[in-house]
Request: fold
Amino acid sequence: MDIYKYSAVSLALFALTANAEVFSPQAANAGAESSQKTTETMLFTAQSLAAEEPAFDQEATIATLQGEGPHSPFTDPDNNKFYSDEVFKVQGVITYLKASNGVMTRGFYIQDPQVDESSCASSGIFVYQNPYGLDLNVGDEVYVYAKVQEYYGLSQLTSVQGVVKTGVTSVIEPTPLLVKDCVVDGVSEQDNFEITLERYENMLVRFDELSHMKVARTFGFDYSDFRNNMTASHGTLNYHPNQKNVPGSDEAIAAAQANKMRRVIIESEDKAENGVLPWYPNFGKDDGTGTTADYIRVGATIDGMEGIVNYSYDEYRLFVTNTADASFFNHSGIERTARPDVKEADVKIGAFNVLNFFTSPFGGANNPLEQNRGAEKFADFETQGAKLASAMLAIDADIFSFLEVENNGYDAMSSIVTITQLLNAELPREKHYAVMRHSDSKIVGSDAISTKIIYRPSVVSLESVKIINMPEQHVHPRYWPTGVEASSAFQRASMTGTFTVNGSGERLILSTNHFKSKGSECWEDYDQETGELTDIDAQGYCENFRVSAAYHLGETLAELEGHKIILGDLNSYAKEDAIMLLTNTAPSGYPLKAARNTYVNGNELHGNGGAVLSDRYNYVDIIGQLHPDGFSYAYGDTVGNLDYTLISPSLVPHVIDATEWNINSRESTLFEYSTAYTGEFPKYRDPYRSSDHDPAILTLAFLDKHELGESIDLPTVPKDMPSENHPKQGDTFTAVVDLTQLGVTSLQIGETIQTIISDRNQYDVSTYSRSQIRVLNSSDIQRGWVSMPLINVGYGENLVSYFHNDSLISERSILVNEQDKTHGGSAAGYLMMMLVMVGFIRRRQA
Reply:
């Protein structure tokens, strides 16, 4: 539609818009387009006012029109009275105006130049009148002749009869946004921040340190408004209601309401282009160091931002009016760090969701579903790999548990081998990783993605590998609501490895899991009468199916001997059902119900009625225990934990530290690897936003510390040193190390020799490994050699590695024959033997 405005510079300036229809983007609040009709609008100068001033019923201040309640006292929305009967003459100074297309509001804001600090009413108001063609500017003092309207929660002037420029200009300074002691309908704004926001509605304000506004969602795409923006929260972060409260409880409901009351959406009037933050032009700017100092992290305190407070689309918003820089965001205590702040110990375990790392589009084998959920462009794929490697190298874990790795085997171009090679290329040989593989399975489960584990054979030995198939749900079509098509639900298999800590004999059982997502659909989510999907307790969909997974996992792990660790994305916040089952933290009388008609490997787990479970597994959420306010994931403007490190009680005394490293959840999605929808925004090969979930880290202590003792001279040649044997499958291989070949003339009591054997292949994939560590005594040194038994060796080509004080001495291959076959001669096991010195196998970072 067209709006016709006619103006002159001096007398009797007016714009005739009689009966013109003006589209209001605000009408989206009602869920559909609507139009408003304006009456004749005139722009006057002060000189013409006496002769042609529009008719009005009374003169009023902005504060009088706003009132101290949730709506103008001249309206009564509860009784469908949205317009005042009167036409008011209102004086104010223009603080902001917009006439361009594609904006959220079209009109201008005026504010009383004298703000009454003692008042509980706003001193600003929005004038719903397109200023296009009117000679109006920020700072102009004007009279507006209009009615008051309560428009979906926003008080505004509408049906504008005329706008008068007084000829006076002034500057309105932003008012610091502060919580006061105003009370509305018996509720103090100390208890409801929306009362504060209502008091500043349509005013030019400033967020400073005393405003206590924190970044709740950093800049990125808002799926609610379908545009790029940011969200702030007053006083604290918005934790998901079920992070600290039992689902459906009064406390959880109150937490959800409090989250909404604290929320302010930080907007630009014009829709932000991809990769551009309009009010922070240097956001993400390359500073020449391979990263940027211009970032905004969740939890930062906002200090210096100015803008207009508006209410639309059922949310309070701040339209930013000044230009921000890095100084506007105080990251004290939550700064980016180059590596995680974690205490070191004997064994470090890391859990990492790799955000769909797929190699099939770039030469790797296909996954079972032949899908690509990862990078579309090779350049993006390279960036993704570099970001992941950067984060993992900084974590420097001895065992890594991975999620969302493409399920495409263990060949040279498989996703898991590619990740491992990216890491090993930057590490000395003694710190290289091996990929854990089940000997009978090329893929893990049937999904496009899978869970995986890599480990350092120099730190832990791999005893065995178990793939735990998770429950499936198959409900007969006759039990589905009318109109709903029956469907089955599946979960990803768990990759579980049993390890022995080298030098201690302690057994660690690591189980990597990825439970059913909250966005999936299961039978229990449908209202049986209406057929509609329901989520009455904010657990998302399939919570009962996740309980089934937790139950089956708990039961299966209970059959294994050793310290147990459940790792991964369990898609449940800390007080949700699946976690309460595994940690035995459900309140008395709270039912933990498993899904109906579930099966594992074709065997029924629970039947038609599902099951209310009484089993409890007593795992300890060790990160939650050490960091009760921590989080690993941000969804919208709420944060919480979906990613867990749950340990058996027996492991608690061995814990040195446990934490999340918030390199992802606090960061803008613009820093992710993908160039899709990010315009010219620079991409970095740093750890930040390498995934959407934060990695978790656990450090454990098992080993006694050996003090170095007396230095003893070595003999020139070893005394009576035996030869190494030629084992068959399942036999013990006795490794022998010649200490006189270490390149030293003496050794101290307490130094160590380690030998490792595994079936690790050229792609660093293995199904087992064995290790022995010998702490040298005086007799060992004096005779010049040590032997170490490595039990139950595997069939085929095996790699033997020898270490002195954690440094690799040499490696060689031996061939282990099957037990039921004749040995091929004394030399057969060594036909493929190779001795590789450290200098030839170590590739250092350039």
